[in-house]
Amino acid sequence: MDGLDSTQLRTLAAVVSEGSFEAAGRLLHVTPSAVSQRIKALEETVGQVLVRRQRPCDATEAGRPLLRLAGQLALLEREALADARGPLGGDPGRTRVAVVVNADSLATWFPAALARLPARPELSFDIRQDDQDHTAELLRDGVVTAAVTAQREAVQGCRVRPLGAMRYRALAAPSLADRWFADGLTPAAAGAAPVVVFDRKDQIQHRFLRTLTGRTLDPPVHYVPSVPAFNESIQLGLGWGLVAERIADADLAAGNCVDIAPGRVLDVPLYWQHWRLDSQVLNALTAAVCAVAADSLR
Amino acid sequence: MDGLDSTQLRTLAAVVSEGSFEAAGRLLHVTPSAVSQRIKALEETVGQVLVRRQRPCDATEAGRPLLRLAGQLALLEREALADARGPLGGDPGRTRVAVVVNADSLATWFPAALARLPARPELSFDIRQDDQDHTAELLRDGVVTAAVTAQREAVQGCRVRPLGAMRYRALAAPSLADRWFADGLTPAAAGAAPVVVFDRKDQIQHRFLRTLTGRTLDPPVHYVPSVPAFNESIQLGLGWGLVAERIADADLAAGNCVDIAPGRVLDVPLYWQHWRLDSQVLNALTAAVCAVAADSLR
């Protein structure tokens, strides 16, 4: 085998990141049919189907290692080119850094880490949002370069650093707390009172109830997958829910909500996982994320 | 044909809403193998593959009309049962109302509509978030019962009502505005200045630039798919972006941001589309959504 064609690898990455052959073609300034030919050629070289042709397109099991390789090559190539050309060497093209972040980190401390990097017009952040227990999948699949994740074990080819814990408090509107939790968070009340959950991947409310009551409860659930809407739904009395400390403390101070389990919290330890790459952008982002997390997490 | 089996239809809905045979089994209190047998039996009755077996599971083209039918039957069945049994008739089971809402509506006015409905322990909201130009797909596919959408044409089987327009202003941090827009939002500046975009489906920034400059521009983009993180990224100077009026006016008043296109706004008309069903819950939700939107949109 003659090694892999870098244009074909770039095309694979574009198809998966943009979701279709048409969109990848627009990004690469070629026709969808050229995109299709490159993917087919790469699949013939490897002897495996690499792209699942659906909307959006996805990498197959066999395609994932190649997708990660494509991302790593692109980042290193850009930086080598920029170094070789020097500061006056003209446009080295854009460097896209893809990072997946859990919703509560993204809504609170994470943007400050992005803003710490010196503004460089060629640098584009491609932030994704996912549950902290699922962020490592996108890293393993090569869709992102780094992740804020609850997974402590290093994904293959990645380095991992602890960031501290995100602390959650159980909040409810005073009216909901009066109706359901006048006698505290008893198993009977917790099994019957409505709870606001971010989405189907979000297990922390149920985990918190299991820790508190020793039982697996099945309360009525409202799914509200938006941090501000989640928070407002709790304030408006739709259900109780676990709210990240920074937002919870503001709600408690304003009197919008009460803590229905005073003195009981849920701590979710978070980690920064990133590809083992000697990349300037990645090193700078790692330093910024660790510094901001140190100020924001426990 | 003997008509469709309602248990099989319910199982199809559970597989798609929960994403896997295992999770559907947990919801329905049966084994994954029982789920699989029911889906196969339904597929044999219809003579089509109905479920794409992947993670998460999805309905095929042929499965979608059946999915919608399953959702409609479930809603009507619950209400008929509750009516038949009367207010003391015991637990009629839970009614899940699935609604897709665009991110900016969800982060601003939509939760107040949910809170207007009288609290009923058997009612569960299953809110989804998607781009306003894509929300109608989930409605057509039968995944949701109603949508806040930018699509004005009624989806087949649905009723549509105008809700008013969400108004957006182009904001940037003062530092970013000084650096790039000292001479206003010229085509040269708009093509070079970094812009914050919600996700790949979000086209409004590019549409706004096209309207203003008459050109299709390709500025550097940061994707930040979280309303609070999007807003904070703009405040921190990562890029400019279009911010929903209610949030924008607070940012402008606080002096965190400046309007880089004073007097120019983007209005996105929104519509409430819902299945044509004589359902009490859906009627109550429609009245609440229309009332809150009338106060919040233009």
Overview in brief:
Two copies of one chain form a homodimer. By secondary structure, chain A is of the alpha/beta class. Chain A has helices spanning 6-18, 21-28, 32-46, 63-85, 103-107, 110-116, 135-140, 174-180, 187-192, 204-213, 227-235, 245-254, 280-296, and strands at residues 51-52, 58-59, 95-101, 123-129, 146-149, 158-172, 195-197, 221-223, 241-244, 258-259, 265-275.
Task: Explain what this protein looks like in three dimensions.
The structure is a homodimer of 298-residue chains. With 298 residues, chain A is α/β, with parallel strands linked by helices. In chain A, 46% of the residues lie in helices and 20% in strands. In chain A, the strands form three sheets. In chain A, strands 3, 4, 5, 6, 9, 10 and 11 form a seven-stranded mixed sheet that branches. In chain A, strands 1-2 form a two-stranded antiparallel sheet. Chain A starts with 5 loop residues before the first helix and ends with a helix. The longest helix of chain A has 23 residues, at 63-85. The first copy, chain A, contains 13 helices and eleven strands. The radius of gyration of chain A is 23 Å and the shape is elongated. Among the domains of chain A are: 1-86, Winged helix-like DNA-binding domain superfamily/Winged helix DNA-binding domain (Arc Repressor Mutant, subunit A); 166-268, Periplasmic binding protein-like II (D-Maltodextrin-Binding Protein, domain 2), CATH 3.40.190. In chain A, a hairpin with a 5-residue loop joins strand 1 and strand 2 (58-59). The mean pLDDT of chain A is 89. The interface between A and B is large, with 43 and 43 residues.
